[in-house]
Amino acid sequence: MQDKKYHKGHVKSDAINIAFEIVGHEGGAKLTMRHLADIIGISHTALYRHYKNKDAVLVKVAAKGFKQVMLQMAEGLKQHELSASKQLSEAAIAYIIFGLKHRQIYQLMYGKFGVKDIFANELGDLSQKMNEILKLIIQKGQAEGDFKPNDVDFLALSLWSFMHGFIELQQNAKKTYARDDIEKMVCLILSGFR
Q1: How far apart, in whole angstroms, are the C-alpha atoms of residue 53 and residue 114?
Q2: Please, are residues 122 and 65 in contact by the beta-carbon 8 Å criterion?
Q3: What 3-state DSSP class applies to 72?
Q4: 56 located within any domain
Q5: Distance, CA of 61 to CA of 17 (rounded, Å)
Q6: CA atoms of 119 and 113, how far apart (whole Å)
Q7: 3 confidence band (pLDDT: 50, 70, 90)
Q8: Residues 100, 173: one domain?
Q9: Per-residue pLDDT tens for 31-42?
Q10: In the list 7, 59, 76, 170, which could disulfide-bond 90, CB 3.0-4.6 Å?
Q11: Nearest-CA neighbor of 159 among 102, 87, 103?
Q12: Domain span at residue 34?
C-alpha cells in the first residue's frame, strides 16, 4: 500500500479500497480509523466526516466482498453455450474459491458487527442477491430439463449450505484442495439436483 494524497472526491472510495487490502491481509481487528486516515493522507477527524466509525467502514468492505463474489459467480451466465449444470457448477466453484482465497474478507462478510441488525439490512440484501444468482441458474436448469422440478429455494439453500460450510471447515484446516477437487465435490452435490 502506498501513501496517497488527500483528494476530497476520492476519500470514501480510497478508504474502502485500502481497508479491503488491510482486512484481506491482516483481518478486521487490525484496521483502525487512525491508520486508515494516515494511509490516505488525511486526518482521522476528516475520515470521520465520511464514516461514522470503524464498523461503518467494515460494512462497506464486506459489501465490496459480496459484490466481488457475485461478479465472479455471474461470469458463467455470460457463457450462454454452457448448460445450466455447468453454469451452476462454475458459480459454486467461484464462490468457494473466493472464500478460500479471501478468508479474512469472507469472515467479515458473515461476521458480527457492532451496529445492531446491520447484516439484516445492507449485507443481508447483498447476500440475498447472491442467492438469486443461484436460483436463476437453477430455474434455467429446470426449464432445460437438467434439474429436477424441486423447490428452487430449497435447491439453492442446499447448494449454498454446502458452499458456505465447506469454506467454514477450511478456514483452519491444514489440508488445501485444488480446483479439481472442489469441482468434483460440487459435481457430487449437483448430482442430487438431477
Answers
A1: 10
A2: no
A3: helix
A4: no
A5: 8
A6: 8
A7: very low
A8: yes
A9: 899 999 999 999
A10: 76
A11: 87
A12: 1-51
